[in-house]
Here is the input.
Amino acid sequence: DMASRAQTQPTRDHEWAVILAGGDGTRLKSLTRHIAGDERPKQFCSVLGRQTLLEETQNRAVLELAPERTLYVVNRAHENFYRPVLRDESADNLVVQPSNRGTAPAILYSLLRIAARDAQAIVAFFPSDHYISDDAKFMAQIRTALDTAAKRRDLVVLLGLEPESPEVEYGWIEPAQPLGGQAKVFGVRRFWEKPNRMLAQVLQLRGCLWNSFVMVASVQALLEIIESAIPELYRAFMALNPLFGSAAESKAIDLLYARLQEVNFSHQVLALKPERLAVLKVTGVRWNDLGEPKRVMASLDMAGIRPRWAEAGVPQFA
Here is the structure.
């Protein structure tokens, strides 16, 4: 109804999406080469059907988040692959990295670009290489996460999925106590990275969740956590803050990236700060990370689809 929508509108005007599309997709190269016939990374590939994974992520995000407040983190080396998909996006919404330096610089750079436009922002981050069985159900859970992050501006809300199997290739989140009366939102006790089979079985029995790497938080919470976990990286980017939006930005970013080490956001930021995290338990949605050929094949089975490239049969990827 109109009255309740009018009340929620002011917060919605501060909601942003970031789609992470800068990865190299190396582990999937054998398969994407087969599908596309070239060296494009998986996010620019029609892995699951007619659309590229990037477009599928775009269509999912737009169910809750405004296109004009959706940023894309891309890698300049992939320009001829991302340009056709993102040709209508304004330059303000493209965060072009000169090279891939892991997830932490990608996340920090996009946060600072958003903070320069909206200090009150709440941001949802979406990797662009996921299979999700039901976009509407999934984005309804994102809505819960956005509302939670708006109320609790000190927290980073991760989306954790009920595991279907004791998967050894995934990161797991061990939930702590439920937070503030929210039945589905828990504190985070710790992360478990790629456990062995036995441990994964124990984690599944203990009610641990698959880490989807989808997260929602206020800009200020994320910047505080990054500053306390990796202060050198934080300071290096903050020094460029006055240049954002100017002609000097991309040159300065080039120089910065040239001297950066690869930094992983999950391991080197989030894992150090469990007390600042919450996990929203996602139910009723099947999820798969399309990191490896066998998981792509499993997702096709889940979705009941046989794209044209798979019709010839692909025994070498099974």
About this structure: The CA atoms of residues 128 and 169 lie 18 Å apart.
